[in-house]
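haha ok so turns out i had the wrong file open the whole time. this is the CORRECT one, sorry everyone. sequence first:
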Amino acid sequence: MNTETLEDVVLDRILTLELARVTERAAVAAARLRGRGDEKAADQVAVDAMRKELNALPIEGTVVIGEGERDEAPMLYIGEKVGRKGGGPKVDIALDPLEGTTICAKNLPNSLAVVAIANEGNLLNAPDVYMEKIAIGPGYEAGTVDLDLSPAENMARVAAAKGVSIDQVTACILDRPRHAKIIEEVRQTGAAIRLIGDGDVAGVIHTTDPEETGIDIYMGIGGAPEGVLAAAALRCIGGQMQGRLVINTQQQRDRAIKMGIEDVNKKFDMLEMAKGDVLFAATGVTDGNMLAGVRFGQDSITTHTVVMRSSSHTVRWIKARHRQTDRFS
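then structure:
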């Protein structure tokens, strides 16, 4: 007996092709401006392209992680409704049309176009504030790392779980002044650090394949919206992640409560940030450890995309060649 619901059928259809088209279109638009030094322009064209493609999907989507609140973001703002007219399953959407705007503007590695979709109510509606994060890839016992432990303790636990000395473990940390103490403590253990200038969604995802990326653990403070996107990706690939909002003002506290977060000091685990069946897609804008960037040929455009689903743990790698005369022209 087939017990699949309409939502399951449509989500699977999105997984096979349409979700890839969403990130492909945004990535190509942004890639045309990579290395030009204009972060705002690159982000805007990616937003415009992603919005157009989302509105072609057979869904009733609500943006829960987007470009900001309505007054700050004219398109793909938190609460915006997207999808093809005529109905479809109700879904939450988390997105970053250009993850790593500075990276793209400087044409540095690991800029991505990213989107995650889950059934309504299953993605954490996180305010645009900072979030403490820690993440590791699959294969570790539950509770191996914890936000409430010191960086040194977490590094030691990862080394012990891997069965290696701590000098063979590498942490990925955003290169920010706020991380000076974390960086110092990790280095004192003898472990290595990969400092990144931007793009912490990619940083978290890289923990899932240390042999390829050289990254075992991600830690530090980054954007809360990016934390939800990263949790969605880990739900599909496997791994562990915790996040806790960094609330510094009453205005931030009020905003978080308004968005449905009753305990602003709560330590969220991966399943609380991204529940149920989750779909995730990312297309490379610039070359990176995981995905190649967009290539522009004389008559064609080549994109490299990963599309994943949590319920089946399916991971699809799509290298697509598009004609310049098609929708990317």
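Residues 130-270 form a domain with the D-Maltodextrin-Binding Protein; domain 2 fold (CATH 3.40.190.90).
again sry for the mixup
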